[in-house]
Amino acid sequence: MMNSQSCVTILKEWDIVAARQMGREIAKNIGFGTVDQARITTAISELARNIYLYAGEGKISFNIVQSLDTKGISIKAEDKGPGIKDLSQVMEDGFSTSGGLGAGLPGVRRLMDDFDIISEVNKGTTIVTVKWLR
Amino acid sequence: MNRDLRNIAIENSDDIIHEWLKEINLLKNVNYTMDISDKLYESNNKEFVNVIFSSIRENGSTMVVEEFSKKIIHLGWPLSYITDGLLVFRKVTLNTILNKLEEVDPAFIASVLSNVDSWVEPIIRHLVNEYSVSWEHIVSLQRIALQELSAPLIPVMDNITIMPLIGTIDTERAKFIMENLLEGVMRHNAEVVLIDITGVPVVDTMVAHHLFQATEAVRLLGAKCILVGIRPEIAQTIVNLGINFSQLPTKSTLKKGFMLALEITNKSIVEMDNKSQYFNEILGISKED
Question: Which N-terminal stretch is annotated as signal sequence (chain A) (predicted)?
């Protein structure tokens, strides 16, 4: 089901740019239009920024995924940071611990099609999200 | 002993150079040096090996190395050319010296190894340092160049100012934008500021957050911000993200934003019907002439 993986390590602020450029390139190759490319890049930007801001270190990896009738891009954001205490709270609009807009994770869920989050306090967070080509 | 080994190496320099050149030519294709003409490659190889020998002869002096490194960096040859060249040199020299010696005392071999290493190491260190200094210099120059492009503010009319933003906005740049914006509003006595984001590739929550903060600060100074250059795909992304831009007037293009700015400042663009007459009047030419 999965093939061709590539990943970017997030350590510095500029790695966010590297991650989203790689994501945009992959999305373009799969055949996403400009609107979906913008959605995917923005989602990557949010995920990578969360890693940079809260965990300090982590990685974003990309997969091309295939279903019966279509294909898509799967983005996995992993870190070994502080984790999230209350998942339902961070998925609410307007919740932020850093004084930001608090639209990051709920925004990513709306920008993409599938969204999975696993987080354990003091162990880290893993988010896998997929956008399907229509 | 050190001197002995050095003499052996120098006496057999012809053999060593011969072997080295042979090996280094094999490496030409793996080291990204393919595009370099054979003639230049060979002449540089000869110079390189002579530099190594003169450094050994002069007890690890880096004077000659310095000149050579400048030349190689200027030519833009890869660092791996240098490191591989020196590793090959180490191998060839060890082989040559060990072949010349009859005794095979392990302690002696160890001292041969450490001696040859002490010839090669200072050269490697020096060259790698030179390379990284040159890279760091380029990076810092580019950083300055980027900062200069960061956040220009253009006064187009009395009270109307435009800030075109191009490229990625990171935290550092967001700070610049804020500073330049506020300083510019005061300096140009602006009533309306148009922020053009046509060239911003991604508008995520952080960029939006910084834009909100900047416009709020401008509002506190008594001026108005209009956000222009919102591409359709960016508009859709912003809606999906769930960011509320309703407090901030927005327009799709700079032109429309400019018209709105004129309205706010009670100005309008009037088209003149009789152009020639108008110009004649301006130029002070009367019809009788």
Answer: none
Backbone angles phi, psi at A20, to 5 degrees: -75, -25
Distance from CA of B33 to the nearest CA of A (A): 27
Tokens, residue B170? 């990171």
Nearest CA in chain B to A34: B233
Nearest to B77, CA basis, from B46, B117, B136, B37: B37
Query: In chain B, what are the domains?
Result: 2-147 (1.10.490.10), 154-264 (3.30.750.24)
For residue A132, list its beta bridge partners.
A72
Pairing of strands A124-132, A71-79: antiparallel
SS3 for B41-90, per residue? HHHHHHHHHHHHHHHHHCCCCCHHHHHHHHHHHHHCCCHHHHHHHHHHHH
Q: Which helix (H) or strand (E) holds A62?
A: strand A58-66
How far separated are the first and last CA of chain B, in Å rounded?
A: 105
The proportion of chain B whose per-residue pLDDT surpasses 70, expressed as a percent, equals 91
A104 interaction partners in chain B (CB closer than 8 Å): 205
Cα B72 to chain centroid, rounded: 20
- pLDDT tens digits, residue range B168-221? 888 888 888 899 899 999 998 899 999 999 999 888 888 999 999 999 999 999
Contact between A45 and B206 using a beta-carbon 8 Å cutoff? yes
Structure confidence by residue, pLDDT tens digits, A9-40: 999 988 999 999 999 999 999 999 999 999 99
Contacts of B168 in chain A (CB under 8 A): 17
Domain count along chain A: 1
Q: What is the CATH number of the domain that holds A55?
A: 3.30.565.10
Q: What is the domain range of residue A37?
A: 2-132
Beta carbons of B51 and B65 less than 8 angstroms apart: yes
Q: Is B288 exposed, middle or buried (0-12, 13-18, 19+ CB in 10 A)?
A: exposed
d(CA A17, CA B170): 9
Query: What ipTM goes with this model?
Result: 0.82
